[in-house]
Each structure stands twice: as C-alpha cells, then as structure tokens.
Amino acid sequence: MIEAKLNDEMIRIAEARHHDPFSVLGRHPCGEGVVVRAYIPHATEVFIAEGNLPLERIPDSDFFEWRGSGKNLPEHYRLIWRDTWHHDHIAHDPYSYLPQITDFDLHLFGEGRHSHAYNFLGANEHEIDGVAGILFAIWAPNAERVSVLGDFNHWDGRRHAMRVRPGSGVWELFIPDITPGIFYRFEIRNRNSGEVLTKSDPYGRRFEMRPGNASIVAPRSTYVWQDTTWMERRAAADWQHAPMSTYEVHLGSWQRGYEGEFLNYRELARQLVEYVTRMGFTHIELLPVTEHPFDQSWGYQVTGYFAPTSRFGTPDDFRYFVDLCHQNDIGVLLDWVPAHFPKDAHALARFDGTALYEHEDPRKGEHLDWSTLIFNFGRNEVKNFLISSAIYWLDEFHIDGLRVDAVASMLYLDYSRTEWVPNQYGGRENIEAIEFLRQLNATTHTEAPGTLIIAEESTSWPQVTRPTYIGGLGFDIKWNMGWMNDTLRYMGQEPIYRQYHHDLLTFSMLYAFSENFMLPFSHDEVVHGKGSMLNRMPGDEWQRFANLRLLYTYMFTHPGKKLLFMGTEFGQGLEWNSAGVLDWYVLDFPLHAGMQTLVKDLNHLYRGSSALHGNEFEWQGFEWIDCHDYQQSILSFVRKTDDEFVVVIVNFTPVPRMDYRIGVPQPGSYREILNSDSHFYGGGDLGNGDGPLVAEEVPWMNRPYSLSITVPPLAGIVLALSA
C-alpha cells in the first residue's frame, strides 16, 4: 500500500505548473527496479497492459504508481484505465518517449533559417518504434507550462503537459494512439503572471468552421497532383516577357449555392476555370484564403497562417482547386498578410502571456487604423514562422506566387502614426522588416523557382523589384499604385476639365520602367464608399460605360502586367458587397455584356500580341507618338518589340476627331484591330472600319509617315500593320 505524500514536483504537476513532466511521469529507476508513474485525473483504476500490472493510487491524488523489477516491461508500455464515467481506455504512455525534435531543427529555428518549421512545429503525424500518433510542438518561451487539450483528454490541461526543450522555447509532446481529425488547442500558463491562456495552433493546418476556433489535426495529404507539365514549365518560364493578366477573386462572393451557401473549393474551381479561360485571364489572384474568424475582414485578419479556410472545404479540396487551374494553364496567386495580425484572444496575440509575435511597445506593435498587431520582425522565430508559411503555400499547394499585403506599412516605422520609435540610426525605416522581406524573397526564389512575390507597396521606396544583392528588396513585381491613383483621379474629371489634368496621364511614363510594375484595379477601389468602377466614371449612362471601356483599353495597352477585380470586368453597378454575390444578372443588359466582351477581347489581344506584353518592363517597349495634345485630351503611342509594333490612340473626350493625323513608325497599310467604341461592346461604332489605312509620306510628329484617321469619342483604338 502506497502511503507516500506528494512531493513538490508532483504538486506542480497536479497544479499544472511543471515545465518538465517527464522528470516525474513515465518510467524511472527506483532502487533495484523501476517505478512507473502516471497522472490521470478522473481515473478510478489503472493497469499496465503488458502483464496486467495494477498501479496503486497515491492517496488523495490522481497519481498512480507501479514498482517492480521492470525486466519484462517494454520500453513503450500501454496503460489501461477506467474513468469515473465507467469508460475503459488503453493507450501507450506518452511519457515513455524521448524527445523527437532534432537539435539541428531547433538550432536553425532559433537562427531564423528553418524554412520548413511546419514539419516539426504544430501537429504532425509521427511514428516511433512502430507506434503511430501525433507529435505536438509549439514555441512559447515565456510559458511555465504548456499542455495539449482535446476531446481525448476532456480538454483538461493537467493531462498532457508538454516538455520544454531548454534554450529554444519550444515545447513538444508525442501523444501515441491518436489520429488525424481530432480537435485540439494548447493551454499555456505564463511563468511570471500565472495567467492561463487557451490558444489555437499557430502552425495549425486546419481549423473548425467559424465561430469555432479549435485546430484540427490534418492528415498527411494523399492528393495526387496532375500538374507536372505546368510546374516544369513554370520553373523555366521567362515570365517577365510573357503576358500576365490577373483576375482578382473573393471566393465567398464570386458565386454561391442556390441557398446562399458557400461553394466547395472543387465546385468553385470548375466554375472559375471555365469562366477565366473564356475571358482570357492568365492568372487568378485569391483574396486571402488563409484561415480567418471574421468574414468581413475578407481574409486580411489572419489567424491560421498554414490553413486554407474551412469555409470552402478541406486542404485537399484546395489542392484540387489549384491543380485544376494548372491543368487548364491558369496560374494561382494568393494574397498573403505578413504585416499584421488580429487581436483575437485565441490566436497569436500575447501568445504565451507576453508580446511574443508582436512588439510590447504599442508605438511599434499596433496598427491603430486597423486595430491589429504588428509582427516583431527582429525575432528570428517570428521571421521563421512567416517564411515557413510562405514556403508552405508555395510547396504544399503549388501556389504560383504571393501578393504581399501592406508592404508600405512594414517599411516605415511612422506609417500612419504620430507617435513612433526611430531606428538605431534615427531614421523612419524599419530595418528589421527590410531584412525580413529580403530574406523572404531570397528564400522563396531559391526553394520555389518560378514563383512570383508581388509587393503591394504604395510609396516611392526605391528598388522594390530589384535583386537583394544590389540593395533591392527582391520582389518580382510591384503594384503601380501611383498609376492607379493618378489614372482614376483623371478619369473622375468631367471630360471638359481633363485638358487641365493631362499630366496625370503622362507622368506614369517618367517612372514606368523603374520597377517591374503591375497595373491594379483591385478590390480596394470598389469598397468603403468609393462606388463601383462604373459609377466612378462621370457622365450619363452611355458616357460612364464609354469611359470605363476607354479606361480598360488604356490599361491593357499601357506597359505593365494587369489586374482586375471580379465584377469590374462586366461593369457591376453597385459597390462590391463581400456578404453577397456579384450582380451577374446585369449581363442580361447589352452595355454590361458589351463591357465583358471588351475585356475578353482585350485579354486575347494582349496575350496574342508580343508588342503589348514582350517588353512591359523595358523602355524599349514604349514610344510616344504624341503626349502633348492636352487640348483634345488625346494620347498616342507605340508598343513594340524587335519584331512587332502596334499604334494606340486614346481619346478622353466625348468629341469624335475626324481626319486626325498621327505619325507612324513605318510605311504600309494599317488596320484597326481593336476599337472600344465598337457596337460589339455597346459603343457607337465610330471608327476606321475593316478597310486598310495607308500611311502617307507626310511627315508628322517627327516621323516621316503619317495616317489620317477617325478617333471615336471616349474610346481607344489599336492599329497594326496589315499582313
């Protein structure tokens, strides 16, 4: 009969305060034999299965002990116990296993150089000596104790306390005999305050449907990819000189089921692939599908950096989505948010009772505008977390690129704040964030060749898309927010006043080739009271549609990759509502259907003409014909490669220009290959018809040859040499 009282170590375990339960629980030498000790609240009796050896309860406690020689006791024995609800259980003792995470993994993680930290942190299927289970691991350096909670232990933080790996802040526990699909959380006790927190897994790969927030152990994927051809071609592609027209999509409001329910990733894939293929886009960009608790954040307040949102299905369902896109030659880009994270108590905020992922000082650690927290990019483990997330999406889901959200907010310490802390040199640059971005780009380009990292950067920060080895940030593409803002500001003017704002159009060509630019008309331009793209255009109904057709023609002929947000391609009249569905019904009306047809034709023209996409990042691809005709608000220019050129004329007034003469690069017959005023698009059908336009030997605009053409009102035309 055991009469021993609990020692201090046991009391700390019973009170869920012990940092190393393995020093007490499990199998230990004892005199000439061994002692096996278990702590199982709610157990009425406990046995070692091998030999049916009974453990005795230490009086007035939930500790049970067996003492004996241990000669016939296997290293990994099983415990049988009956609980107070008269249920029987059998499982291997988790406290009979040695540490599983290698010192090398911990070393790289501590240095911030482990780009696959998700392979050992979080919840991973694992097997030891033929025994299968789940290896749980988490980084919580300021914890006094960390436990795994789940249905398998009645969410009792006393049951499965983890061991800490000294010097790393990493806690781990292998729990045998449990399988993927279980719900779990981590319970963390802060070592200074004693505060107990319940947290979702930062490295969790699947979460329960909101409003729940438990993590779910995801099984190893058995998905068989069918996109080998795409992946091989992507790795060797000359993407800088290839067309790239991106359709930005919010999956929850692009399309829904008959009863307003979310569609599964697989059904969304089938519908989107058919539509995007027909429309001629080369890529889909998804607003964040990383797990998030609040629908109206559109995914930008992330709580699951390794988990596709459960709103639309499982991780393998999402793999199917990407795979089907690739099989149909459509790339998939993902909005990714490393700049900030929400304050939700179950997630990263004050994860171990301290400012762990964020800064303690709110002048550095909080975005007041967004009521979110800023990652502490100076901590190696935080950088490791984010870079591992990026690699996870590129590797596990074959994502073709990441659009990095809110880069400007990362680069400047005084971004949208009056109180801020300067860097060590007294400047406003966030040196730690800069180094993180460079490491991110260098790592992704090394480990995922052919993928693109795209910066949403709204300032004039230099060399955003230049290599890190010459001092750049290392991004592939930068959103041209200056072009977008200037162009929309110009288009918002009544045409009679546009002559006074001509510089808003011409200014972009002063810097168009300083970076690798993408021209974005994104979701940000159709929310928060800005109105739809259509209703941002001035004039009556006909003029609004004509202006928008003109804008898109100008966009697709201007140097730079292209991006349009869903619904803008058919001129949706209402501002985007993420809680509803796009107004597809407006396609029953000719002007909307014509707008959609124009975007389709612009995509196919852009993709089929090397002159429009071959030199988008080089000054050799653009040449003004005339940028000075501000009084008539007309621009004319040439887009070209060594082998091909097209002539573009855009008229930003509702006045048709008859017998308008422009200089052209070469003699010969020209033909009109696109006219945004065509009746096919809902226009007035004024233009130059199907007949040839013969260049005359009349010098004009510093060119030896010229054409006399008709320029339709509020429209753009594209001319090419006849074959």
Automatic annotation (TrEMBL):
**What does the organism's lineage look like at the top?**
Bacteria, Pseudomonadati, Pseudomonadota, Betaproteobacteria, Candidatus Accumulibacter
Name of the protein this chain belongs to: 1,4-alpha-glucan branching enzyme GlgB
> What organism is the protein native to?
Candidatus Accumulibacter contiguus
Show the SMART domains listed in the entry.
Aamy
Give the top-level enzyme category: transferase
| Database matches in SUPFAM superfamilies | (Trans)glycosidases, E set domains, Glycosyl hydrolase domain
Q: Which residues form a coiled coil?
A: none
Domain Glycosyl hydrolase family 13 catalytic: from-to ranges: 248-602
List keywords of the entry alphabetically. Answer: Carbohydrate metabolism, Glycogen biosynthesis, Glycogen metabolism, Glycosyltransferase, Transferase
Q: Which residues form the active site?
A: D405, E456
Query: Which Gene3D superfamilies does its entry note?
Result: Glycosidases, Golgi alpha-mannosidase II, Immunoglobulins
Write out the GO MF terms. Answer: 1,4-alpha-glucan branching enzyme activity
Instruction: State which gene encodes it.
Output: glgB
